[in-house]
Design brief:
Elements lengths: L1 H28 L4 H12 L2 H7 L1 E3 L13 H7 L4 E3 L5 H8 L12 E4 L12 H5 L4 H17 L4 E2 L23 H16 L12 E5 L18 H8 L1 H8 L4 E4 L3 E2 L2 E2 L4 H11 L5 E3 L4 H8 L5 H11 L4 E2 L3 H11 L5 H17 L12 H7 L3 H14 L1 E5 L12 E4 L25 H8 L3 E4 L8 H7 L5 H16 L3 E7 L18 H12 L4 E6 L15 E4 L7 H9 L68 E3 L3 E2 L13 E2 L2 E3 L5 E9 L12 E11 L3
Parallel strand pairs: 1-2, 1-10, 2-3, 3-4, 5-6, 6-9, 12-13, 12-14, 14-15, 15-16
Antiparallel strand pairs: 7-8, 11-16, 17-20, 18-19, 21-22
Helix pairs in contact: 2-15, 3-14, 7-8, 7-16, 7-17, 8-10, 12-13, 13-14, 17-22, 18-22, 20-21
The structure holds 1-deoxynojirimycin.
Amino acid sequence: MFITMKKNYNFFIRHFLVLGLFAWLLSACQPKTEHGKFTNNLMAKMTIEEKIAQLNLVTPTSKTGPFATKNVLEKLKEGTAGNVYSIMGSPEFIHERVSLADSTRLKIPFLNGLDIIHGYKTVFPIPLGLSCSWDSVLIEKTARVAAIEGSAVGYNWTFSPMVDITRDPRWGRVMEGAGEDPYLGSIIARAMIKGYQGDDLSNPSSLMACVKHMGMYGASEAGRDYNTTDMSRLTMYQNYLPPYKAAIDAGVGSIMTSFNDIDGVPATANKWLLTDLLRKEWGFKGFVVSDYNCIQELIAHGVAANYKQAAELSINAGLDMDMASESIVASLKESIGEGKVSMKQLDNACRRILEAKYKLGLFEDPYRNYDPKRAEKVILSDNHKLLAREATCKSMVLLKNDNNVLPLNNESRIALIGPFANVKNQMFSMWAFRGETDSVVTILNGLKKQSSKVTYAEGSFVTNEPVFLKKSRAYYNEEEQKEMLANALDLAKKSDVIVAVLGEAMNMSGEAKSKTDISIPDCQRELLKKLKATGKPVVLVLINGRPLILLDDLQYADAIIEAWRPGTMAGDAVADVLFGKYNPSGKLTMTFPRSVGQIPIYYNHKNTGRPYVDGQRGGLMKFKSYYLDELNAPLFPFGYGLSYTSFEYGDIVLSDTLLIGNDKALEAKFSITNTGKYAGEETVQLYLNDLVASVARPVKELKKFIYNLENQKN
Ligand code: NOJ
């Protein structure tokens, strides 16, 4: 009896425990958050087709790959595509398209994306230029303005920031990032996300950010776009991954995969990247979208036999959304039926996308952003233009200033010459395609506002490079070139100083714009040479999207200002800098090589076992790490940038001589004095070098900086 009782008792406990565990599991699986509960309820009502549609992102206009969606509007209307990007037109037009969601069964609103990369209508300098300000507060403000303008016409998602570390200026996309340093890159990534997303994604003036391109896209071999990448985990973790991680820590809502493969597995189907690293190691909670047509491209990569298998590989690796290839929508139901993808994978992806929509407040009001009256008020407002002018001033880098040619005296007769001196659209980049060209202040106009002694001549075509002319259907004519040159020289001879505005055309940098020759095009260099031969001082203002090879041009310019692609307020800002209203303070965030043969070249390289100091050739120095025909040093290093004034640093006093352990702080004290004639700003940069470590460390690493340290002249 006793034994039976005990048995019964055990039986009871066992069942009680099982039931308890079941109840606990059930409650543990229940979402605790409001958005979790909401999406669960919604998903309970969705068919498998409706869930799959959420994973589909289509575009009516943008074709940046070999595949293009057809009948986009029908798809949005019938509900087979749950998200859209690059709808372009008036606010009303955009709204009309996005309202197609209302005709679907569950009326689930669309994510409405656009590449708002360096401004919407008010265009700021390209990201590489902005990064040269080292001013994260300013950069955050520019992203905020982009969000304010872009959201007002109804967008809720931007494909920015690009945080890919770049060491190869042949790659056309270096213009879209923050250069070569992981520490600075991380700070800028955080700032931009804060700017776009604000404190609350559901605020009508916020845009959800999309950090891209995960991962290591900036290391495309030989600087050729879409090319493979190959690197050690050490380099990855130390140099390439930190900005993506910083973006996640800053709460970025979405991530875009990259076109390249990592260890042979394309990023879009890379489980290590999308699940092990992103979800498990870093705890990313948002959703992952592929880049344009990346799923279909798994076939060309050679890892999938057809689009169905490509979609399976991607979803199983942890991808959530398909940009443009439509492979998921075409095949996922079948793959789930065959057991090749689990329903859980689909649910996970769908849930993440719906949660993003929830956080954006779209279920409360799908059109909460859209406000044509607000758009009219904020777009290109005076404040926005003022910020653009400041940002452009702060992004310019003074590369050379022999004999203090700059700042110019506005009493001098200025010959303003060059193909970029009196053009509006060339002040933008390919990623400012929604920018308002009409409102651009040309460099000629900007200078004229601040001086009555400016004359202008075009001087040259942009390029005479046959391959480029053919590919981009650009125009060049030898006779006209000669005529332009003669006019420019006439003008130059009658002036006190020449300002030559030269560089690259807008379509020479950006996506799919890799180049092996990254000099200023020959016809413009010829112009520069001839201008210098007049004997007048020459100030070269560069308009370009990447570090250029300038070694031979240096001798033909007394002063050089790197103005990048400067945006809406180009002319006013260039004039501010030329006339000394603003004393340039930008510092390079990407190394300028002396020759293409030095690439990849970057400041935080390792030492080698046979380090070489430039100039020490011959004898025993022979078997060292150097080039027979070129120096090791770059033309202008990372962190470089002059000012119209000079700063003197006092001795640095460190709080300790040893830095052991993660939690120890090292304090550096020093004085800095403006010893020149002008007020100016200085960015103080602190680098460390770990002399003895278990793995080889970079020769120097940026660990801290203080930007725009204002230093009034004595
Ligand atoms: C391709 C580009 O690589 C990516 O940066 C961009 O956001 C998408 N296309 C959408 O335009």
